[in-house]
Amino acid sequence: MSKPDFYETLGVNKNASEADLKKAYRRMAMKYHPDRNPDSAEAEHKFKEVKEAYEVLTDSQKRAAYDQFGHDGVDPSAGFGGGAGQGGAGFGDIFGDIFGDIFSGGGGSRGGGQHRGSDLQYNLELKLEEAVFGTSVDIRIPTMEKCDPCGGTGANAGSHPETCPTCHGQGQVRMQQGFFSVQQACPQCRGTGKIIKDPCNSCHGQGRIEKEKTLSVKIPQGVDTGDRIRLSGEGEAGPNGGVPGDLYVQVHIKPHELFNRDGNDLHCEVPLAFTTAALGGELKVPTLDGQVKLRVPAETQTGKLFRLSGKGVKSVRTAHVGDLYCHIVVETPVNLTKKQKELLEEFEKSMDEGGKRHSPKEHSWTDKGKSFFDGVKGWFDASDKEK
């Protein structure tokens, strides 16, 4: 069964701003939230659809991928950049950002006090070659992991957390305020639903300890600056044995000494000796997978663009491969010897004998400048006569 369109799910058009998305999400989430529709599987399913649509469309990278490739652009099975709503988050993670404590008591915890762990972000710098061809990178990250001695419960060996007598394990209490009944986190257990009388000696009742772990990250071919790679479940462990969050690896490509990247295309400047530019010839051009020969025709000028098809970057989402664009820059010779200067002076005299035929652009520009100057002079002359 195909997924519904994210824009249709939220009831907005494709040009909707972030404020429009938030307003639409607030309306739809209030309508389908499980607390308002207990025991309704259909409402729960609709809420998940609304939540996933909101997560994708409010993330600029995911929204761009979705607009271009549809659901395939944010499909977590590709292992890259997508996965909205697939990281183990409960209903409270996005919903709580907008509605605060109205439903969830301030943390997305639903009876038992198990919260999802925080997501982490790691900024990864890659060489252009690594991004183009893909690679595997080991990274070390500090994080909060489940305490092994207590298994994440926070209680010492031989003891167990006890049910909070105030909220009876719900983690929430209901407060009456005039006509309104408001749920909030239990003040005695702080929303966990449990009381730990004999805290674990390792984590001191927290259920988590600080650790540094090493992860191997597989970089797919064609990633670019701004892309994110999600490692599901590699974020921080959740408090009180809750599920861990995700780790997002944010990609940054280092500047390259030869190439500039523009999407899947590459650009480079190619210096060309003025004799080769005038007479034509052949030169070797570097590409990411070796040198290639480029035939330069006679009378080539600075700014001439040559396209080498298929010598760019393979798209991270499709089989399309970009091109390499070579921008010609004709180089004026420097550090000339006396003999070379004499030869150039002789060459210049021969050029003068040919007139406009050898340098049409120069003469055209000179003629336009003279015409402009004559026109301005004539205007001033006319003004003087009127006076």
TrEMBL record:
GO terms for cellular component: cytoplasm. Residues 349-371 have a biased composition (Basic and acidic residues). Residues 134-212 form the CR-type domain. Its main location: cytoplasm. CXXCXGXG motif repeats lie at residues 147-154, 164-171, 186-193, 200-207. Residues 349-376 are annotated as: Disordered. Residues 5-70 form the J domain. GO terms for biological process: DNA replication; protein refolding; response to heat. The J domain is necessary and sufficient to stimulate DnaK ATPase activity. Zinc center 1 plays an important role in the autonomous, DnaK-independent chaperone activity of DnaJ. Zinc center 2 is essential for interaction with DnaK and for DnaJ activity. Belongs to the DnaJ family. PANTHER family: CHAPERONE PROTEIN DNAJ (PTHR43096:SF48), DNAJ HOMOLOG 1, MITOCHONDRIAL-RELATED (PTHR43096). This is Chaperone protein DnaJ. It comes from uncultured Thiotrichaceae bacterium.
